[in-house]
Amino acid sequence: MSNRPLADRIRPQSFDDMVGQKHLFGEKGAIRRIVQSNYLPNMIFWGPPGTGKTTAANIIAAQSGMTLRSLNATSASLSDVREVIAETSSLFGAGGILLYLDEIQYFNKKQQQSLLEYMEDGRITLIASTTENPHLYVYNAIISRSATFEFKSVTTEDIIPALKRALDILNEDSSVKKTADDDALLYIAEIGAGDVRRSLNYLENAYHVSDEVITAEGVKTFAPKVVGTFDKSGTVHYDILSGIQKSIRGSDPDATIFYVAKALEGGDLIGVCRRLQVIASEDIGLAYPQAASIVRACVQSAFDLGMPEARIPLANAAIMLATAPKSNSAYLAYAAAAEDIEKGKGQNIPDHMRPSNRYDNYKYPHDYPGHYVKQQYLPDDLRGAKYYEYGENKTEQAAKAYWDKIKK
């Protein structure tokens, strides 16, 4: 029996064998067409783990005839990079060096900058991979010299054929020929959550603990209840929180509760609580001013209860926000005022509003009918500026009608 990991033994040797990423490696895929044109730029691959980034680099190196050297930025140093560069003047680098740098986000700015000279003069062709958004974690000069490609999570349907090929390999290594029922293959593909390598690992474990038939129930005895690509500080974290906010803003309660559940089941209680409080004021705002208080109460309840009960008040808060009327009028008013402040306007507050001027000529609104009197409040250079526009929702229109009546 081979000691090599199953994921390595089943690794595709051509673009045709790759699962998923049709937009990159299908018949009209971008990377396939680039390689076929005999043009090989520096490239950045980004996306979740187990989606084919390393496999693609291996295939590209094989088809281009270049010498492949691989480094992992979590453990590599500048001296390791220099050793690769040194090969460019040897027989090993005669056909060109393709440097595959995995997890490039772990290289600091100086380390990333060290690659630029060799990228520019063609001594190395860089393929860097990362699970994070490169525009947030990769030095801009490297991005500007590279083609960037996003790898997406592999669908359940695409993972199943890979599992079947892997099962054949396991049977070849064993004197016992085992099978897996359709439910088992489907379950293993699903809990991989788009990560082919993860699904293959589950299959390999299931193979060695199962009898002649691998079943879904058997896999469930050792597979985690909740899986998925999740982190509390990186790209996936912000993608999920963005999913929550965009779904609430779009008044879609079903998508809202899905993303809230995904974040909470991934352990991000604080992220959900913070984002819901922001949404209450940014997207619901003056259309339903009580939303902020309600969300605050639900958040406090969630912290008091802890998980798993915290899910209940947060689900209530999220769906309430998704189904509430929407207004961003206050958010836009602030942004407009901040823009004038950035331009240096409004430096001098009117004299009648300044305590240093004893409020001379200030009119006290409560002394007038309707508790209103017309007077200048903005600085002279901003007199007449309009920052706030009443939203079209019922609450703000009621306020507008009231003040139209008073002010006339």
Protein topology:
Layout lengths: L5 H4 L12 H4 L4 H7 L6 E4 L6 H12 L2 E6 L5 H9 L10 E6 L6 H5 L2 H5 L3 E7 L3 H4 L2 H5 L2 E4 L5 H18 L5 E2 L1 H10 L4 H14 L3 E2 L1 H5 L14 H15 L3 H13 L3 H16 L5 H16 L5 H13 L5 H14 L51 H14 L1
Helix pairs in contact: 10-11, 10-12, 11-12, 14-15, 14-16, 14-18, 15-18, 16-17, 16-18, 17-18
Descriptive terms for the model:
408 residues; alpha/beta; two-stranded parallel sheet; 5-stranded parallel β-sheet
**What is Rg?**
30 Å
Beta content: 5-15%
Order of helices and strands: HHHEHEHEHHEHHEHEHHEHHHHHHHH
| Biggest sheet character | 5 strands, parallel
- Taking all residues together, what is the mean pLDDT? 89
Please give the share of residues in helix: 40-55%
Number of helices: 20
Q: Tally the beta strands.
A: 7
Q: State the low-pLDDT regions, or none.
A: none
Strand order of the largest sheet: 2-3-4-1-5
Cα distance, first to last residue?
89 Å
Structural class category: alpha/beta
C-alpha geometry: flat
From the structure provided, what is the oligomeric state, counting identical versus distinct chains? single chain
Describe the structure.
The protein has 20 helices and seven strands. The protein is of the alpha/beta class. Strands 2-3-4-1-5 form a five-stranded parallel β-sheet, with helices on both faces. β2 (67-72), α5 (78-86) and β3 form a beta-alpha-beta unit. The longest helix has 18 residues, at 156-173. The model has no long low-confidence stretch (mean pLDDT 89).
What does this entry show, briefly?
The protein is of the alpha/beta class. It has 20 helices and seven strands. The protein has helices spanning 6-9, 22-25, 30-36, 53-64, 78-86, 109-113, 116-120, 134-137, 140-144, 156-173, 182-191, 196-209, 216-220, 235-249, 253-265, 269-284, 290-305, 311-323, 329-342, 394-407; strands at 43-46, 67-72, 97-102, 124-130, 147-150, 179-180, 213-214.
